[in-house]
Amino acid sequence: MIKHISPARTLVLGLGAGALALGLAPGNSVSLTPPAAAQSTAQAGELDRVVGALRAISTMKADFTQTDRQGRTLRGTMTLKRPGKIRFDYGKDANFLVVSNGKSLYVIDYEVAQVERWPIGNSPLGALFDPDKDVKRFGKLVKTSDPNVLSVEVRDPKKPEFGMITLIFVKNAAAPGGLQLTHWVALDAQNNRTRVQLSNQKYGVAVADSAFTFKDPRRTARRPG
Questions:
Q1: CA distance 108 to 102
Q2: Residue 137: which of 63, 32, 27 has the closest Cα?
Q3: pTM, whole model, 2 decimals?
């Protein structure tokens, strides 16, 4: 029997490559090559900027476009609130939802009345909403052809099964920390590639905690409006 996998679950599983690569599992210690200490002063400074930019985001709303390896595309709205809250909403007509309430990340599939729970510590999205995790400890700056674009590659070469995640930032004085996260790309050990492109980013907007709740489809078949 083939287990049902919704596009929402693909968002999490496709980015699962970055979960442990980011060293977000509780008690997990990752040593990368080359380590941050071996990088140039300029690279270390740029990584400091990336960390500062992520930590400077208190709330954020953005449109997103999710594309998988086969070129299938889904669109929706991402809402983020520190600490630890995030929501990927694929629209009222969608049968799935991805929500973190600050403690756990949930993948809700209303089509089959299924809910999967991921501890935030194991979430591939942890680098986006956990201000206590320092990206520069686990990643390295990748040179780009544009001086205004920063690319941070995060992976553990000793554990290729964890895959790789790449975060892309563009220098923007209007964004927190002077850097705007534009998209990220994850590649898992099976070469499954997931790209999430952001647009219309808005920072410091009012976001109620109720945005990170959901109706459990195991109790009701109706999707929340």
A1: 16
A2: 32
A3: 0.76
Q: Which CATH superfamily is domain 7-212 in?
A: Lipoprotein localisation LolA/LolB/LppX (2.50.20.10)
Q: pLDDT by residue (tens digit) across 120-136?
A: 655 545 556 554 555 66
Give first-to-last CA distance, the chain, whole Å: 32
| Spans in the chain with pLDDT lower than 50 | 1-4, 13-38, 124, 131, 222-225
Taken as a whole, the chain contains a residue count of 225
* Triad 160, 132, 18: Cα angle to 5°: 20
CA–CA distance, 224 with 195 (Å, rounded to integer): 27
61-63-67 Cα angle (round to 5)? 135
> In this structure, what token pair is assigned to residue 140?
């390295």
| Chain segment 18-40, per-residue pLDDT in tens | 333 333 333 333 333 344 444 57
Q: How far apart are CA 194 and CA 111, in angstroms?
A: 22
